[in-house]
Amino acid sequence: MAEAVMNSLAVTTTSNGYNCQYHSYPLRSHISRTPCGCFLYCAYRSVGRSKKRESGFYGLKMMSLSKGWHPWFGVAEPRMGVLIRSTSGDYQRFVPHDSCLEFGSVYGQEKDDFDVGSLRKKLPPWRNVSTVQQTSDFQTGVASQPLMVSERTITDENELHFLEERDEELLSKRILTLSRSNKVKSALELFSSMKFSGLKPNLHACNSLLSCLLRNEKVDEALRIFESMKATEMTTAHTCSLILKATADARGTDAALDMFEELLQISNIRKDFDAVVYNTMISACAKVNNWVQAEKIWKSLTCDGHVGTTITYRLLVCLFVRCGQNELALDAYHEMVQNGLKPAVDAVQAIIGACAKEGNWDLALSVFQKMLNSGLKPNIIACNALINSLGKAGKVSLAFKVYGLMKSLGLLPDAYTWNALLGALYRANRHADALRLFEDIQIEQCSVLNTHLYNTALMSCQRLGLWDRALQVLWQMEDSGLSVSTTSYNIVIGACEVARRPEVALQVYEHMVHQKHAPDTFTLLSLVRSCIWRSLWDEVEEILNRASPNGSLYNTAIQGMCLKGKIDSAKKLYKRMGEHGLKADGKTRAMMLQNLPKNSVRREKRRDKDMKAPDDTICRLKHSETIAFV
């Protein structure tokens, strides 16, 4: 007899032209489990014109629900209710067991109440039960587990469940387990069902669910849960940190800053803030290099009585150095040291760079030594910054000591290292040592040679007057495939000028033009000076004729001619200078006055007086008007 009950059953009735069929589905679960059957109420009607029978759902879907218990064949059987829902999804209602004793009573009761608008106001928003498997696998849990019935959640994508279990701690543990297992939908449905049933998940479960949602990029659902946690005052610093980071990643730093400002206005939330929350916002600002907001958050952290962590100052120092705010970076570093915190490697390296840019080489060296004493290994960038800072301060020996220490640490020098060392030797007027170091670089690491290193070597040759060595370096530079700039040619021409070799300078100039490099004013000035020293006046004239009129060139040529006794040539050039509308400087005018005849000197002075005459005339007129008025 018990087996007969477990078998499926189909009953068909006919009323008012509709054939109604009842389908029951047996359960495969053990009799100790809670039995639950489901059926579909189907309607058939005949079509007279086509003389065909069409079948379809009458618009009702039903599922039996556990309502109460009574003994039946010695087995605990639940009393059944019926969940009736229209296929359109607009109507649904739970009918208790007492109303289902007769099939007609269900139909008669629901026929009159099938008002979608009115029922929607009275009844809970049950979800379409068509998702329930209608084969025979709709199984319930064991007696110790709650019986859950599908309902609609806060969102349209999830379901609410009827919960027999009322233990909040047990349900919270289930949310925690589901969240850790990354079962987003199940965890969210259980959370929503608890809230719908008036149960309150604990804080640990809520935070775990938030983390699960954010891992799966469900930011909107996470924000809804966060708002409900705010309403019940269940937020912690960890909660705020999670939601602020997610907001910054999904909607941008500005949105996260707005949320942070709102949370600061809520006193019961702000009092729970810790350094981690502030670190989250500083990190979000650092990603977009917003050092202004990062500084405000840093000050807010201090004003609220919190002490920054190593991560706080690491973020601040690196951000400030990256944005060129070296003073703020040093302030953050000093505060970190005062709080007894050990700086991280990247923070120390950033501080060394900041000190180098500020010219504070002694602090940079002190930080570097502390870094080594604490067992931290500096990188090549920090070493280069320190070497460059020491070289600019003239501490060449210290710079080479840092270089030796860098090699002992297994760091391979790069182009920045060599440039800093060569620059240190050049600024210390150790030009011969700079050239020897350049030769060593060519032998050991010729691959790192660049334009800056070649130009430093060329400038050392210029200072020493080694025009032949300068030419050799220039040819090597061209053979290396590097782009030779006008500056490099100017330095070589300058070396020829120092060595009094104008012929070589002119050859370099012709080669430069042949290489399609346009000479600038410095090129032509160096050539003019070289030719004047060797009295190559034709070449001077040719240079002036080929170049566009330039006051500096004419002043240099006139002064050189006067010093060499070429007064007539200087006068002609001075006259041509006036014709071009160029103005002679004070030294040129003084030399010309010294070499002009006395009558010419008088005319020159009279010309200067006439140029000032209008001003004198105006003064006399004003004086006359004043006397007349008196």
UniProtKB/TrEMBL annotation:
Gene3D superfamilies the record matches: Tetratricopeptide repeat domain
Top-rank taxon: Eukaryota
Family matches, as InterPro entries: Mito_RNA-Proc/Resp, PPR_rpt, TPR-like_helical_dom_sf, TPR_mt
Residues in PPR repeats: 167-201, 202-236, 274-308, 309-343, 344-378, 379-413, 414-448, 450-484, 485-519, 550-584
Keywords associated with the record: Repeat
Limits of the Pentatricopeptide repeat-containing protein-mitochondrial domain: 179-300
Sample GO molecular function, one term: mRNA binding
Family note: Belongs to the PPR family. P subfamily.
Name of the protein in question: Pentatricopeptide repeat-containing protein-mitochondrial domain-containing protein
Species annotation: Escallonia herrerae
